[in-house]
Amino acid sequence: MTNPTISGIDTAIVISYFVIVLLIGFIISRKTKTGEDLFLGGRSFGWGLIGLSLFASNISSSTIIGLTGAAYMTGIVNSVYEWMSGIPLIIAALIFVPLYLKNRITTIPEFLERRFDRRSQLFFSFITIFSTILIETAGALYAGTLVLQAFFPGLEMWWTSLGLALIAGTYTAFGGLKAVVYTDAIQAVILIIGCSAMTWIMFGKMGYSWDNVLNSVPEGHFSVVRPLDDEALPWPGLILGVPFLGFWYWATNQYIVQRVLGARSLNDARWGVVLAGFLKIIPLFVMVIPGAMAISLFPGLENGDAVFPKMVTEVLPVGLVGLVLAGLISAILSSVDSALNSSSTLVVIDFIKPNNPNITDTEVAKYGRITTVVLMVIAALWAPQIQNFTGLWAYLQQMFSIIVPPIVVIFLFGVFNKRVNGHGAFWTLIIGTGIGILLFALGEMGLWSLHYSMNVGLMVFVSTIVFFAVSYSTPAPLQSQLDSLTFKAEYMHEGTEGMAFYKNYKYQMIALAALIFGILFWLW
Question: If exposure means fewest CB atoms within 10 Å of the residue's CB, which of 12, 168, 307, 397 is most exposed?
């Protein structure tokens, strides 16, 4: 790839974005005084901000680079992780959002502590911090550095990762979740506009003909139901892996759910979740399909992670390059800021505060800021190591397949079955995670060939057996561990009495589900 020349207009757009982001962080930091301000934005978020922030925090630069690269190399099958996100979001809105908000928790592990015990809280919190920093944050920094290196080849991986982390860490440490959410909303708009423009230009190079697009890619490239031996996502993985990975991410992941916990009302939380479900369909059209179209426009690329930077540098005119680059940089920052804020929340609320019961709100905020800075440095140090893996998308999904199954099991059965208990939850986390690590190690050594998506389904089955076996062989939980912490059908209807149908989240979810299954049928 030749070194592209960045015009003055493009540079001005990027600099303006940085100035706006830092200004927002500075303004909000002046009103961020307590732990609740820092971690939950004072529980003041409306549905629009929640939906845009959920979308932006998930659509990181690692997602963009990973998805377009995967679409180029193996087809659009990995896009199911995006547009099928609406299904776990629907489950979250129906079942888990009411439970979380009723109990006014600050962290998701807090919910486990109340439903089960302190052991499960600490283990889950540690696993979440570990995965958020070393997978989400480091992955975003690595992908963001790849993008910047495409424009500025002389940049060093380590120093660039640290610089990006410093920018995001600065306004996150002082502005907290409110700064994160507001900058996320800006990022979502910029990213959608920039990627949509690039998609339209690429479609124009294909003669604005969908038939030309289909004829330009290998057979089966636009199918999401793949053979059993498919390396990207075999059809059993579509059934056994994708739904569980999605449920963990959207319903139990502090990194994502934290802005829902900051909602000003139950309905705002639900509407925001549904909005995110609709927004998650957009990447299929403006990120994934363009990655597949790039096969005919830029044949012969050996590294999938280089596809999106190639598209930006070769396709876009002056001005739009700056817009997309600003969108990508904002995607980096939105992912990093969300991860840093959620992880510092877990460290302070789950580990520091319980051991210091007399800590003040001001001190909670201080510890949160210090923790943000420490975690920022750790993520920046790990990010360059990701280049040793075969591909960014494979790195992300293989790591998730280790931690997800036992978490999914204890949350799903924990809210529906009143007999499962703390002993069962703790040992499910320990044994399930241990076996997951073992299978990953065996796979790296060539001794275990099952696709990671099918590993998820297998480990959900194993974790379920452990959960019930241990729970039913030990004493039943106390009533206090069940009240308001397990599912009740009436929770789904709260706040919707007498509401117009178009405002009722249940009708909105029906429309979302119909759209998702329509796309599944189209891409079958």
Answer: 12
Residue 263: strand, helix, or coil: strand
CATH code where residue 198 lies: 1.20.1730.10
Largest CA distance in the chain: 69
pLDDT in tens, 337-372: 888 999 999 999 999 999 898 899 889 989 999 999
Give the Cα-Cα-Cα angle 395, 462, 393 (nearest 5 degrees). Answer: 10
To which residue do tokens 């904002």 refer?
A: 330
Bridge partners (DSSP) of residue 516 are none
Q: By the 8 A CB rule, do 76 and 292 touch?
A: yes
Q: Residue 60 phi/psi, 5° resolution?
A: -90, 175
Looking at the whole model, is its pTM more than 0.85?
yes
The confidence score (pLDDT) of residue 232 equals: 67
Is residue 30 domain-resident?
Answer: no
pLDDT at 54: 93
DSSP code at position 503:
T
With respect to residue 490, please indicate whether it lies within any of the assigned structural domains: yes
β strands within 197-337, DSSP E: none
How many domains does the structure of the chain reveal?
1
Rounded Cα distance between 237 and 228, Å, is 9
pLDDT in tens, 369-413: 999 999 999 998 888 877 766 555 565 666 677 889 999 999 999
CA 479 to chain centre: 34
Contact 137, 339 (CB under 8 A): yes
Residue for token digits 């992908």?
A: 143
Q: Please check whether residue 3 lies inside any domain of the structure.
A: no
Whether the CB-CB separation of 305 and 66 falls below 8 Å is answered with yes
Q: What's the domain range around 313?
A: 8-23+35-522
Q: Is residue 128 part of a domain?
A: yes
Q: Do you know the residue count of the chain?
A: 524
Using DSSP, state whether 341 is helix, strand or coil. helix
Nearest C-alpha neighbor of 176 from the set 11, 41, 59, 373: 41
What's the CA gap between 178 and 186, in Å, rounded?
13
Instruction: Report the candidate in 342, 358, 361, 340 with the shortest Cα–Cα distance to residue 350.
Output: 342
Other CB atoms within a 10 A radius of the CB of residue 521 amount to 8
